Structure formats: C-alpha cells, structure tokens
From TrEMBL:
Organism: Roseibium aquae
Protein name (database record): Polyketide cyclase
Superkingdom of this protein's organism: Bacteria
Coiled coil: none
GO biological process: polyketide metabolic process
Length: 345
C-alpha cells in the first residue's frame, strides 16, 4: 500500500532544497487547483498555485538566502475532526541567512532557524488541498536581537528533534489511535484547574498523562521547560493568571501516527485578558489564539510536547504590532517615540 506521506514529504523538501534551475517550480503536480493555504499573522489566506508561489514560497526564498527545510517531525494519519480526510503534520525549521525582510520583519544578515508548524490535507490523488502554516516570528525576532517582549519565561533554545530521533515518517505500528487517545484525554482534563496551584486532575503521578521527565518546548516569548513543576512555573501559572477563562480544544485537525500525535485549532482558544501578560496590561478584551501541538509518547505517557502559538496575531488583538516594535529597535526608538533597547533573552 502506498504511503500517502511520502509524496508531500519529498515535494516540500525538494521545494526548499538546492537550486535546480532559475525557473519557478511547477506546483500543479502537488497542489489542487484551489488549494488554500492559511498563514499565521501577518500572512494571508492564499488560494491556488500562483498565490502560494507568490505569498509563501518566494517570500521565504527571498528573505532566507539559500533556504533549506529541516524537518524534525513529519507524521500523517486520518483526521478525527471534521472535515476528516488524510492529513500531514510537520514540525520544521527553515534555515538560511536572513538577508531580506520577511512578512515585514527586518533582516539580521545572519543565520536563522525559523520554526514552523504545518498541517496539510492530502487528497486521494496525493495533492495538497489545504494547508495551515504557523511561523514562530517571535522567536525569529529573538534571533535578530530585536525582541519587543520582556525576557522569555522559560529557556529559549532551538527546537530539538525528538529524543528518539524517529520523528520523520515513523513506521505506523498500529499505535497511532492509542497515542491520540492519550493526548485527547490529557487535553480534556486540562480544561479545569485549581486557581491556587494551577494543577489539573490526572496530569501527573503514577496514573497521570505526563512522564515525570516531560519536556515542554514552548514558542518565542515562553521558551522551554522541564518536568511538570517547570511547566507550571515557566508557562502555566502566568498564562492562566492572564487568561483564567480560556477555553481550548476547538481543533480542525487531530491525528495520531505511531507514538506521535498532533492537534491544531485556527483559532483553538477563546479567552478574555484578565491579568497582565508578557508586559501587556490586562483590559478585559476578548481574544482568540491559534495553536499547534506536537506530542511524542512512550509507555502510555506524554514525554515531549512542541508548541507553536500565533503570538503576532494575539498581540495584534491587544493593539500591538510586534513586528513594527522589533523593527523600531534598529533606529533606537519604539513606535511610541521612546528609546528602545534591544533585549537579549
């Protein structure tokens, strides 16, 4: 039986591989005529091969010279959520020298690793009919040394690949459904929490969902942390203090493949801003948040979790343009006219 993951994996990596000539790639073999790609802020919705070429492929190739794709996780499976179908989920880096603006963000003229989470719907003929792409532009700002937020809460680092080094096209041994079951149960129980301790039932302990040595790799602005105590201290406490009424789980895609699972919502979360967060004063306004989660499990425990959040979009809803704020650090003034100093988290 043909592995439906192979063709898109080959296509995406060839697209950002060594140059094969000056001509634009022919995307019609790999994309349906009305293929629709949703990009994280400040990107747009792109429909058809011409718009994908002009709005996604060319901007990356122009901004990151000799850009290469470096997958860390590439899995696929049937989607449990409507609209169903076969989907791919990928955690990758786009690697290159940042030589020209990308989505308005000024370049650093140095090597960067641009994180990206990607979900693709694959039709029966093997072509991509839908894509959701979430770039971590906040982390890219950190790499340019023009970081408009306070210091990262956890430890900022390059997203590592899975500890088992088997995240690319893992052999499906029938565990995908059970892996996704585990992650879905964790997400369901995490909705309710103790406002004093920020703990949710069933998350830790001998019968808990998470491995004692869990690693949580958060996006730019949050960073990574180790074990449940680190997760609560470096992410969960501040997030739930700011957004205590948050409701998540509005996912368009949930898939499991071997001991990996991936879920995404666009947006996934709705909430109101009730506490200060990353330097932004609370004002009670309603917010939404786009989310992508990638999980590795072993022995019926979640061992690693990679998370991408569209914080450019979130802060835009709060009235802030983080790209403009980052760019203003080049001139030494913030958009408000006050002195802006680079922050090196």
């Amino acid at each position: 039986m043909t592995d439906f993951r192979q063709a898109p994996h080959t296509f995406l990596n060839a697209l950002f591989g060594p140059r094969t000539g000056p001509k634009d790639p022919d995307l019609s073999e790999f994309l349906t005529p009305c293929s629709t790609w949703h990009l994280a802020a400040p990107g747009q919705v792109l429909t058809g091969t011409d718009q994908v070429l002009e709005g996604f492929i060319k901007p990356l190739k122009t901004a990151l010279s000799e850009v290469r794709r470096r997958d860390e996780i590439f899995i696929g499976g049937p989607n449990r959520r409507p609209p169903g179908g076969q989907w791919i989920a990928s955690l990758t880096h786009y690697v290159g020298n940042f030589e020209a603006p990308l989505f308005g963000l000024a370049p650093s003229h140095h090597l960067v690793f641009l994180r990206a989470g990607e979900f693709y719907r694959i039709e029966e003929d093997g072509r991509i009919s839908e894509a959701r792409i979430l770039f971590d532009l906040i982390d890219l700002m950190r790499q340019t040394r023009r970081f408009p937020l306070p210091r990262v809460l956890g430890t900022e680092m390059l997203f590592p690949g899975p500890a088992t080094h088997d995240g690319i096209l893992p052999q499906d041994d029938g565990r995908g459904e059970a892996t996704l079951d585990l992650c879905e149960a964790m997400l369901a129980d995490m909705r309710a929490f103790d406002p004093e301790t920020f703990t949710s039932k069933g998350q830790t302990g001998p019968d808990g969902y998470w491995d004692d040595d869990m690693l949580w790799y958060g996006p730019g602005g949050i960073g990574a942390n180790y074990r449940w105590s680190g997760f609560e201290k470096d992410h969960r406490a501040s997030f739930l203090t700011a957004f205590p009424d948050r409701v998540g789980g509005n996912h368009y895609c949930r898939i499991g493949n071997a001991h990996y699972a991936a879920v995404s919502g666009w947006p996934s979360m709705t909430m109101t801003h009730q506490g200060d967060y990353l330097g932004q004063k609370a004002d009670g306004r309603a917010l939404t948040l786009r989310v992508m989660d990638f999980y590795r499990c072993a022995n019926s425990k979640i061992c690693e979790n990679w998370v991408l959040l569209d914080y450019v979009d979130l802060f835009a809803q709060m009235g802030r343009d983080l790209i403009a704020e980052s760019n203003a650090m080049i001139a030494g003034t913030s958009p408000s006219g006050q002195e802006a100093k680079p922050v090196f988290p």
